Each structure stands twice: as structure tokens, then as C-alpha cells.
């Protein structure tokens, strides 16, 4: 879908900015919104660029920097901590050789932390793109990451 088509789906209202940002981001192969995207949205809605940028930078789900093809979001809330998310984080960092907030040089993975994903019953939990993975163990995480690296996921 073209950017213009996305815009025309929405009424020119400020409360639609976040939805449009999400759709623009999904369209971008590097999972982010560009300055031009934000300007386009601002012009369409009829608000200053700074308002669109403010919305984009406020929400952690929206990025203004290029990110990997796959976004890994590891839950960083207490129930997941109690169930060992720190160990899981260490495994991911070791496997991908990146820190939280970084992207692998091949632009395949970005690692982020997130607040509770609402599935604490299967803690520790991570999301990769729209997929939720629970009851994580170091072994299970290595297997999942290998599947993504090999492109079988
Ligand atoms: S605390 Fe991790 S999913 Fe709720």
C-alpha cells in the first residue's frame, strides 16, 4: 500500500497520528518512520512537524531510527524478572552480540525491553515482531533465535 493510500484512510484528526505512524513504520523495511514520513503526516493532518515528531518519540513502539527486520522485545517487569528474564537477556545479548537498544550490523535484529506484555503466567516472556514466546529458557531462546537467523521463522 502506498503512503497516500494510508493517509486517505484516516480523517484529518490529531488522534489519528499514532495509527498512521504505525502503518508507515510497518511499511518501512527498517521498521522506523523517516523525517519525510513525519512531514507528510503533519502536512496531511494540518499540524506542525514537531507535534508528529513528539508523538513518535513519546511512544516506544515507534522508532525514528532504522531498526532490524525483527524486533525482539523482552519483558522487563517484575514477574518476568522473578522468573529469570535477566538470564534470558544475557543469552540474547551473547547470541546477537548487541546490547539493549542496538541493532545487529546485518540489520536483522533489534533488541528492546518492554513493560509487562500481559502474559505473566508464562514468564519469562519476549515478543519477536507480533509473536509472543513464553516459558523461556536459555535453550529455548537459542533455538528460537536460530530459527529466525536461518529464516525458518
Ligand atoms: S511481567 Fe512479563 S509478561 Fe507480565
Label this structure with key terms.
single chain; 153 residues; 7 helices; 4 strands; 44% helix; binds FE2/S2 (inorganic) cluster
Ligands present:
FE2/S2 (inorganic) cluster
Counting helices, strands and paired strands, the structural category is: alpha+beta
Radius of gyration over all CA atoms, rounded: 17 Å
CATH architecture call of the largest domain = 3-Layer(aba) Sandwich
Beta-strand residue fraction: 5-15%
End-to-end separation in angstroms reads: 24 Å
User: CATH superfamily name of the largest domain?
Assistant: Glutaredoxin
* Structural shape: elongated
Overall pLDDT confidence: 95
SSE sequence, one letter per element: HHHHEHHEEEH
Helix content: 40-55%
CATH classification class of the largest domain: Alpha Beta
Organism: Candidatus Mcinerneyibacterium aminivorans
Binding site for [2Fe-2S] cluster: 75, 80, 116, 120
Family: Belongs to the complex I 24 kDa subunit family.
Protein name: NADH-quinone oxidoreductase subunit NuoE
Amino acid at each position: 500500500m502506498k503512503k497516500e493510500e494510508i493517509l486517505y484512510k484516516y480523517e484529518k484528526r490529531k488522534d489519528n497520528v499514532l495509527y498512521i505512524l504505525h502503518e508507515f513504520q510497518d511499511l518501512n523495511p527498517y521498521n522506523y518512520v523517516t523525517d519525510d514520513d513525519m512531514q507528510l503526516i503533519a502536512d496531511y493532518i494540518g499540524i506542525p512537524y514537531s507535534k508528529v515528531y513528539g508523538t513518535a518519540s513519546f511512544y516506544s513502539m515507534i522508532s525514528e531510527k532504522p531498526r532490524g527486520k525483527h524486533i525482539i522485545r523482552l519483558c522487563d517487569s517484575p514477574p518476568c524478572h522473578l522468573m529469570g528474564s535477566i538470564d534470558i537477556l544475557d543469552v540474547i545479548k551473547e547470541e546477537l552480540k548487541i546490547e539493549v537498544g542496538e541493532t545487529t550490523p546485518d540489520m536483522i535484529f533489534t533488541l528492546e525491553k518492554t513493560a509487562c506484555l500481559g502474559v505473566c503466567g508464562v514468564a519469562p516472556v519476549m515478543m519477536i515482531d507480533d509473536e509472543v514466546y513464553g516459558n523461556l529458557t536459555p535453550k529455548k531462546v537459542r533455538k528460537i533465535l536460530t530459527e529466525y537467523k536461518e529464516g525458518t521463522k
